[in-house]
Amino acid sequence: MRKHWIFLGLCISLLLLRVEEAPANLAADGAAQIPAETNYVALTFDDGPRRGTTDRLLEGLKERGASATFFLVGEEAERYPELVRRMQAEGHQVGNHTWSHVRLEGASTAVIQEEVGKTEELLETLLGGSGYWLRPPYGLITPGTEKLVRVPMVKWSVDPRDWENKNTDKVVQAILKHVKPNSIILLHDIYDTSVDAALKVVDTLEAQGYCFVTVEELLCLNGVTPEAGELYRTGTGTT
Ligand code: NI
Question: What Å distances lie between residue 79 and 52, 90, 124, CA to CA?
Fold first, then answer.
């Protein structure tokens, strides 16, 4: 409960900060106009961290004042604890993508609990806190087994298939073609082309007035209270 109130406070602070940052639009007659509503969007990165790509991405996001969400594979997070701590220190959301990137769809209860639980334990050890949100690998979990997951789950609404299209411009175009306010964009911070594409997308959309926030912030900004076992595809809810 306490965490909820702290977060609500953060969410309100974030909104106020964004409003203050928004430039005042002046009409020809000098009268101030109400600035157009800021659009929010969430970048999400799966399968990392990876040395050489994740750190370059973190640097680029910091330069641009953009926040993102990272769904980590436990065995990679164990290899690069400094990158995991840096994500949290720089205001990004850290989440769980199972220990060894197993397909949870069709998996046994024991496998689901082991793969999700081991990564949760590592994140608790590295970062403190608990209840790290889950992105099931491939976005799939067998209907009925969601009750085994005691945290909110995150899917996506924009998928440029960056693992297939290892071409920066193609990935950028695929995102820009489909993105809209409250989109959750799927990328992988283990490819150089995806890091380059993400930073280009941030530059392009920030220039259009978009603001990059974490998935938790995006739901909060839309007044959505995240529920354990629910799968969220956009910032406005589950669909
Ligand atoms: Ni994955």
Answer: 13, 19, 15
- Residue 123 in contact with residue 132, Cβ under 8 Å? yes
92 tagged catalytic: no
Q: Tell me if 104 sits within 8 A of 140, measured CB to CB.
A: yes
pTM passes above 0.90? no
pLDDT at 96 over 80: yes
Which is the catalytic residue, given 97, 188, 189, 196? 188
Return the minimum-mean-pLDDT range out of 29-38, 55-64, 80-89, 118-127.
29-38
Alpha helices (runs of H) in the chain, residue ranges in sequence order: 2-21, 54-64, 74-79, 81-89, 109-127, 168-178, 192-207, 215-221
Q: What is the CA(59)–ligand 1 centre distance, in A?
A: 22
DSSP state for residue 182 in the 8-state scheme: T
